[in-house]
Task: inverse folding
Protein backbone atom coordinates (compact mmCIF):
# COMPACT_ATOMS: atom_id res chain seq x y z
CA UNK A 1 0.00 0.00 0.00
CA UNK A 2 3.03 2.24 0.26
CA UNK A 3 3.77 3.16 -3.36
CA UNK A 4 7.32 4.22 -2.59
CA UNK A 5 10.16 1.73 -2.81
CA UNK A 6 11.68 1.61 0.64
CA UNK A 7 13.56 -0.91 2.74
CA UNK A 8 11.28 -2.84 5.06
CA UNK A 9 11.40 -2.13 8.77
CA UNK A 10 14.05 -4.34 10.34
CA UNK A 11 11.67 -5.41 13.10
CA UNK A 12 8.92 -6.74 10.80
CA UNK A 13 10.73 -7.81 7.64
CA UNK A 14 10.99 -11.37 8.90
CA UNK A 15 7.19 -11.63 9.03
CA UNK A 16 6.67 -10.07 5.56
CA UNK A 17 4.34 -7.38 6.82
CA UNK A 18 1.62 -6.71 4.23
CA UNK A 19 1.46 -3.04 5.14
CA UNK A 20 5.19 -2.48 4.51
CA UNK A 21 5.69 -0.91 7.96
CA UNK A 22 8.45 1.58 7.38
CA UNK A 23 10.85 3.20 9.79
CA UNK A 24 8.31 5.86 10.82
CA UNK A 25 8.82 8.77 8.43
CA UNK A 26 7.87 8.29 4.78
CA UNK A 27 4.32 7.10 4.07
CA UNK A 28 1.67 9.55 5.26
CA UNK A 29 -1.22 7.10 4.84
CA UNK A 30 0.59 4.57 6.98
CA UNK A 31 1.41 7.20 9.60
CA UNK A 32 -2.25 8.14 9.72
CA UNK A 33 -3.12 4.46 10.15
CA UNK A 34 -0.65 3.96 12.99
CA UNK A 35 -1.50 7.22 14.75
CA UNK A 36 -5.20 7.85 14.17
CA UNK A 37 -5.29 10.57 16.81
CA UNK A 38 -2.95 12.75 14.77
CA UNK A 39 -4.70 15.44 12.72
CA UNK A 40 -4.35 15.02 8.97
CA UNK A 41 -4.48 18.04 6.67
CA UNK A 42 -7.59 17.90 4.43
CA UNK A 43 -7.62 17.69 0.63
CA UNK A 44 -8.12 21.41 0.25
CA UNK A 45 -5.94 24.08 1.75
CA UNK A 46 -2.25 24.78 2.18
CA UNK A 47 0.18 23.06 4.55
CA UNK A 48 0.99 25.74 7.19
CA UNK A 49 4.50 24.35 7.69
CA UNK A 50 5.87 24.88 4.18
CA UNK A 51 2.90 26.50 2.39
CA UNK A 52 2.66 23.84 -0.29
CA UNK A 53 -0.61 22.35 -1.67
CA UNK A 54 -1.42 19.34 0.47
CA UNK A 55 -3.29 16.28 -0.80
CA UNK A 56 -3.34 14.22 2.42
CA UNK A 57 0.28 15.31 2.56
CA UNK A 58 1.81 13.00 -0.01
CA UNK A 59 5.14 14.62 0.70
CA UNK A 60 7.40 13.43 3.47
CA UNK A 61 5.64 13.86 6.77
CA UNK A 62 8.25 16.25 8.17
CA UNK A 63 7.06 18.81 5.60
CA UNK A 64 3.47 18.91 6.82
CA UNK A 65 2.33 20.44 10.09
CA UNK A 66 -0.81 18.30 9.89
CA UNK A 67 1.29 15.18 10.35
CA UNK A 68 4.19 16.48 12.43
CA UNK A 69 5.89 13.72 14.37
CA UNK A 70 5.49 13.82 18.17
CA UNK A 71 8.53 14.80 20.23
CA UNK A 72 11.45 12.38 20.47
CA UNK A 73 10.55 10.32 17.37
CA UNK A 74 7.72 8.38 19.02
CA UNK A 75 4.67 7.20 17.04
CA UNK A 76 2.04 5.49 19.19
CA UNK A 77 1.33 2.04 17.80
CA UNK A 78 4.48 1.83 15.66
CA UNK A 79 6.79 -1.12 15.98
CA UNK A 80 10.00 0.87 16.39
CA UNK A 81 10.12 3.66 18.95
CA UNK A 82 13.37 5.61 19.11
CA UNK A 83 14.62 8.05 21.71
CA UNK A 84 17.65 10.23 22.30
CA UNK A 85 18.91 10.06 25.90
CA UNK A 86 21.98 10.32 28.07
CA UNK A 87 23.83 7.44 29.72
CA UNK A 88 23.86 8.11 33.45
CA UNK A 89 25.24 4.80 34.74
CA UNK A 90 26.90 1.56 33.62
CA UNK A 91 26.29 -1.33 35.99
CA UNK A 92 26.01 -5.11 35.65
CA UNK A 93 26.44 -4.92 31.85
CA UNK A 94 23.47 -2.54 31.59
CA UNK A 95 23.60 1.08 30.46
CA UNK A 96 20.99 3.18 32.22
CA UNK A 97 19.79 5.90 29.83
CA UNK A 98 17.80 8.92 30.99
CA UNK A 99 15.12 10.01 28.52
CA UNK A 100 13.15 12.92 29.93
CA UNK A 101 12.25 11.86 33.45
CA UNK A 102 12.43 8.14 32.64
CA UNK A 103 15.46 5.89 33.18
CA UNK A 104 15.68 2.95 30.78
CA UNK A 105 18.05 -0.07 31.19
CA UNK A 106 19.70 -0.76 27.82
CA UNK A 107 21.99 -3.24 26.14
CA UNK A 108 24.36 -2.58 23.24
CA UNK A 109 23.46 -3.27 19.63
CA UNK A 110 25.65 -5.98 18.08
CA UNK A 111 27.68 -3.55 15.97
CA UNK A 112 28.77 -1.71 19.09
CA UNK A 113 29.84 -4.96 20.78
CA UNK A 114 32.73 -5.58 18.40
CA UNK A 115 35.08 -3.90 20.80
CA UNK A 116 36.59 -6.63 23.00
CA UNK A 117 36.16 -4.65 26.19
CA UNK A 118 32.45 -4.44 27.08
CA UNK A 119 31.39 -0.86 27.68
CA UNK A 120 34.34 0.77 25.91
CA UNK A 121 32.15 1.80 22.98
CA UNK A 122 29.81 3.75 25.26
CA UNK A 123 30.79 5.90 28.23
CA UNK A 124 28.79 7.38 31.05
CA UNK A 125 27.76 10.85 29.86
CA UNK A 126 27.31 9.85 26.22
CA UNK A 127 24.25 10.95 24.26
CA UNK A 128 22.84 7.86 22.55
CA UNK A 129 19.95 6.83 20.31
CA UNK A 130 18.00 3.88 21.68
CA UNK A 131 15.22 1.63 20.44
CA UNK A 132 12.49 0.87 22.96
CA UNK A 133 11.40 -2.73 23.49
CA UNK A 134 8.07 -4.11 24.69
CA UNK A 135 9.52 -5.11 28.08
CA UNK A 136 10.34 -1.42 28.77
CA UNK A 137 14.07 -1.98 28.26
CA UNK A 138 16.05 -0.64 25.31
CA UNK A 139 18.87 -1.21 22.83
CA UNK A 140 21.57 1.38 22.16
CA UNK A 141 21.74 1.86 18.40
CA UNK A 142 24.23 4.71 17.93
CA UNK A 143 26.44 7.02 19.99
CA UNK A 144 26.49 10.72 19.15
CA UNK A 145 29.80 12.57 18.81
CA UNK A 146 31.56 13.53 22.06
CA UNK A 147 33.01 16.87 23.07
CA UNK A 148 35.62 15.22 25.26
CA UNK A 149 36.31 12.15 27.37
CA UNK A 150 37.80 12.13 30.84
CA UNK A 151 40.33 9.34 30.55
CA UNK A 152 40.17 7.92 34.02
CA UNK A 153 37.49 7.50 35.09
CA UNK A 154 35.95 7.39 31.60
CA UNK A 155 33.20 10.02 31.50
CA UNK A 156 32.11 11.71 28.26
CA UNK A 157 30.97 15.28 27.57
CA UNK A 158 32.34 16.73 30.80
CA UNK A 159 32.22 20.49 31.45
CA UNK A 160 34.61 20.61 34.40
CA UNK A 161 36.61 18.41 36.71
CA UNK A 162 37.23 19.04 40.39
CA UNK A 163 40.33 17.23 41.63
CA UNK A 164 39.72 16.63 45.31
CA UNK A 165 42.50 16.33 47.88
CA UNK A 166 42.65 16.63 51.64
CA UNK A 167 44.81 18.76 53.91
CA UNK A 168 45.45 15.71 56.04
CA UNK A 169 44.33 12.11 56.44
CA UNK A 170 45.43 11.41 53.74
CA UNK A 171 47.98 14.16 53.04
CA UNK A 172 48.48 15.65 49.59
CA UNK A 173 51.23 13.97 47.61
CA UNK A 174 52.66 16.38 44.98
CA UNK A 175 53.32 13.60 42.47
CA UNK A 176 49.76 12.27 42.71
CA UNK A 177 48.34 15.79 42.42
CA UNK A 178 50.31 16.47 39.25
CA UNK A 179 49.48 13.05 37.82
CA UNK A 180 45.78 13.91 38.05
CA UNK A 181 46.40 17.38 36.59
CA UNK A 182 48.19 15.85 33.59
CA UNK A 183 45.27 13.48 32.96
CA UNK A 184 42.80 16.35 33.23
CA UNK A 185 44.82 18.43 30.74
CA UNK A 186 44.98 15.45 28.36
CA UNK A 187 41.18 15.20 28.45
CA UNK A 188 40.90 18.73 27.00
CA UNK A 189 38.54 20.05 29.68
CA UNK A 190 37.60 23.71 29.71
CA UNK A 191 37.65 24.05 33.51
CA UNK A 192 39.98 22.34 35.98
CA UNK A 193 39.67 23.02 39.72
CA UNK A 194 41.72 21.81 42.68
CA UNK A 195 39.51 21.31 45.72
CA UNK A 196 41.19 21.15 49.13
CA UNK A 197 38.92 19.37 51.59
CA UNK A 198 39.24 19.22 55.40
CA UNK A 199 40.55 22.79 55.46
CA UNK A 200 39.47 22.92 59.10
CA UNK A 201 42.49 20.73 59.96
CA UNK A 202 44.97 23.54 59.21
CA UNK A 203 45.42 27.13 60.34
CA UNK A 204 46.94 28.07 56.96
CA UNK A 205 44.31 30.09 55.08
CA UNK A 206 46.05 30.00 51.69
CA UNK A 207 46.87 26.30 51.62
CA UNK A 208 48.44 25.26 48.28
CA UNK A 209 48.63 28.91 47.18
CA UNK A 210 51.65 28.14 44.97
CA UNK A 211 49.27 26.52 42.45
CA UNK A 212 46.85 29.46 42.26
CA UNK A 213 48.65 31.01 39.29
CA UNK A 214 47.92 27.83 37.31
CA UNK A 215 44.55 26.52 38.52
CA UNK A 216 41.54 27.70 40.50
CA UNK A 217 41.75 26.53 44.12
CA UNK A 218 38.66 25.73 46.20
CA UNK A 219 39.07 25.30 49.96
CA UNK A 220 36.17 23.58 51.70
CA UNK A 221 35.21 21.84 54.91
CA UNK A 222 32.23 19.55 55.39
CA UNK A 223 32.54 20.06 59.17
CA UNK A 224 32.39 23.87 59.29
CA UNK A 225 30.66 24.39 55.92
CA UNK A 226 33.43 26.69 54.71
CA UNK A 227 33.52 27.15 50.93
CA UNK A 228 30.45 25.01 50.21
CA UNK A 229 28.27 27.92 49.01
CA UNK A 230 30.87 28.98 46.45
CA UNK A 231 31.27 25.36 45.33
CA UNK A 232 27.50 24.98 44.92
CA UNK A 233 27.37 27.92 42.49
CA UNK A 234 30.04 26.33 40.32
CA UNK A 235 28.18 23.01 40.20
CA UNK A 236 24.78 24.46 39.27
CA UNK A 237 25.25 23.93 35.49
CA UNK A 238 26.77 21.32 33.23
CA UNK A 239 28.47 18.04 34.11
CA UNK A 240 30.99 18.20 36.95
CA UNK A 241 33.27 15.28 37.78
CA UNK A 242 34.77 14.84 41.24
CA UNK A 243 38.00 12.87 40.96
CA UNK A 244 40.92 12.22 43.24
CA UNK A 245 42.51 9.74 45.59
CA UNK A 246 40.44 7.55 47.91
CA UNK A 247 39.58 8.96 51.32
CA UNK A 248 39.80 12.64 50.38
CA UNK A 249 36.09 13.19 51.02
CA UNK A 250 34.52 13.40 47.55
CA UNK A 251 31.35 11.62 48.68
CA UNK A 252 31.25 13.63 51.91
CA UNK A 253 31.33 16.91 49.96
CA UNK A 254 28.48 15.81 47.70
CA UNK A 255 26.40 14.66 50.67
CA UNK A 256 26.99 18.05 52.31
CA UNK A 257 25.77 19.83 49.16
CA UNK A 258 22.67 17.65 48.79
CA UNK A 259 21.56 15.39 51.63
CA UNK A 260 19.26 13.47 49.31
CA UNK A 261 22.26 11.90 47.54
CA UNK A 262 23.12 9.70 50.55
CA UNK A 263 26.40 8.47 49.10
CA UNK A 264 28.34 5.87 51.04
CA UNK A 265 31.26 7.34 53.01
CA UNK A 266 34.29 5.39 54.22
CA UNK A 267 36.98 5.99 56.81
CA UNK A 268 40.69 6.40 56.27
CA UNK A 269 42.68 3.29 57.13
CA UNK A 270 44.65 3.82 60.35
CA UNK A 271 47.23 1.27 59.26
CA UNK A 272 48.21 2.63 55.84
CA UNK A 273 46.86 6.19 56.32
CA UNK A 274 45.01 6.01 53.02
CA UNK A 275 41.39 5.95 51.99
CA UNK A 276 39.37 2.90 51.14
CA UNK A 277 37.29 2.63 47.95
CA UNK A 278 33.67 3.35 48.88
CA UNK A 279 32.45 4.55 45.46
CA UNK A 280 32.34 1.52 43.16
CA UNK A 281 30.80 2.93 39.98
CA UNK A 282 30.76 6.21 38.09
CA UNK A 283 27.26 7.67 37.91
CA UNK A 284 25.65 10.96 36.82
CA UNK A 285 23.67 12.38 39.73
CA UNK A 286 21.11 15.10 39.04
CA UNK A 287 21.97 18.34 40.85
CA UNK A 288 20.03 21.57 40.22
CA UNK A 289 20.42 22.27 36.47
CA UNK A 290 23.33 19.90 35.92
CA UNK A 291 24.89 16.60 36.89
CA UNK A 292 27.50 15.55 39.43
CA UNK A 293 29.75 12.53 39.06
CA UNK A 294 31.22 10.89 42.13
CA UNK A 295 33.93 8.70 40.65
CA UNK A 296 35.76 5.74 42.19
CA UNK A 297 38.93 6.95 43.92
CA UNK A 298 42.29 5.94 42.50
CA UNK A 299 45.70 6.04 44.13
CA UNK A 300 47.55 5.07 40.95
CA UNK A 301 46.85 5.99 37.32
CA UNK A 302 48.72 4.56 34.34
CA UNK A 303 49.61 7.42 32.01
CA UNK A 304 50.30 5.10 29.09
CA UNK A 305 46.57 4.18 29.03
CA UNK A 306 45.85 7.82 28.24
CA UNK A 307 48.29 7.91 25.32
CA UNK A 308 50.87 10.01 27.15
CA UNK A 309 54.51 9.46 26.22
CA UNK A 310 57.86 11.22 26.57
CA UNK A 311 57.20 13.35 23.47
CA UNK A 312 53.86 14.86 24.50
CA UNK A 313 54.08 14.86 28.31
CA UNK A 314 55.53 18.40 28.31
CA UNK A 315 52.41 19.69 26.54
CA UNK A 316 50.34 19.02 29.66
CA UNK A 317 52.49 21.24 31.88
CA UNK A 318 51.07 24.46 30.47
CA UNK A 319 53.53 26.78 32.26
CA UNK A 320 56.39 25.28 30.19
CA UNK A 321 55.19 26.74 26.88
CA UNK A 322 56.36 30.39 27.37
CA UNK A 323 59.90 29.19 28.19
CA UNK A 324 60.23 26.43 25.57
CA UNK A 325 62.78 28.41 23.49
CA UNK A 326 65.32 25.61 23.64
CA UNK A 327 68.34 24.74 21.52
CA UNK A 328 66.74 21.50 20.30
CA UNK A 329 63.24 21.39 18.82
CA UNK A 330 62.53 17.99 20.38
CA UNK A 331 63.88 19.01 23.79
CA UNK A 332 62.37 16.99 26.64
CA UNK A 333 63.47 19.63 29.20
CA UNK A 334 65.41 17.06 31.19
CA UNK A 335 69.06 16.49 30.22
CA UNK A 336 69.54 18.70 27.14
CA UNK A 337 71.85 21.76 27.26
CA UNK A 338 70.57 25.31 26.72
CA UNK A 339 67.05 24.42 27.81
CA UNK A 340 64.75 27.37 28.42
CA UNK A 341 62.49 25.45 30.82
CA UNK A 342 65.40 24.41 33.07
CA UNK A 343 66.61 27.99 33.13
CA UNK A 344 63.11 29.17 34.14
CA UNK A 345 63.09 26.66 37.01
CA UNK A 346 66.43 28.00 38.28
CA UNK A 347 65.07 31.57 38.14
CA UNK A 348 61.96 30.55 40.08
CA UNK A 349 59.58 31.28 37.19
CA UNK A 350 58.42 27.65 37.16
CA UNK A 351 57.47 25.91 40.38
CA UNK A 352 60.25 23.48 41.31
CA UNK A 353 57.77 20.99 42.75
CA UNK A 354 55.98 20.84 39.41
CA UNK A 355 59.22 20.38 37.48
CA UNK A 356 60.35 17.55 39.77
CA UNK A 357 56.99 15.85 39.28
CA UNK A 358 57.45 16.25 35.52
CA UNK A 359 60.85 14.52 35.63
CA UNK A 360 59.41 11.63 37.65
CA UNK A 361 56.52 11.17 35.23
CA UNK A 362 58.88 11.48 32.25
CA UNK A 363 60.98 8.64 33.63
CA UNK A 364 57.82 6.60 34.14
CA UNK A 365 56.55 6.96 30.58
Result:
Amino acid sequence: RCRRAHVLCARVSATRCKLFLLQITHCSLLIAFLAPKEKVTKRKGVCPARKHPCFRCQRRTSMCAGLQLPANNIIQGAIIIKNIGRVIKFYNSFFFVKVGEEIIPCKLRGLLKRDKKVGSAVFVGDFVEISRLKDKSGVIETVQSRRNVLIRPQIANVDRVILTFAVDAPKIHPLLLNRFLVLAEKSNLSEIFICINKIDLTSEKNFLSEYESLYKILRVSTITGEGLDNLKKILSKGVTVFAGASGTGKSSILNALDKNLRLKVGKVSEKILRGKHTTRIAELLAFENGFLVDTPGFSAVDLSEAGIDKKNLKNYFKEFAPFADCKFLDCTHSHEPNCGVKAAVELGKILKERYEAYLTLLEEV
About this structure: The first helix runs from residue 28 to 34. Helices lie at 28-34, 174-186, 228-234, 250-257, 340-346, 352-364.
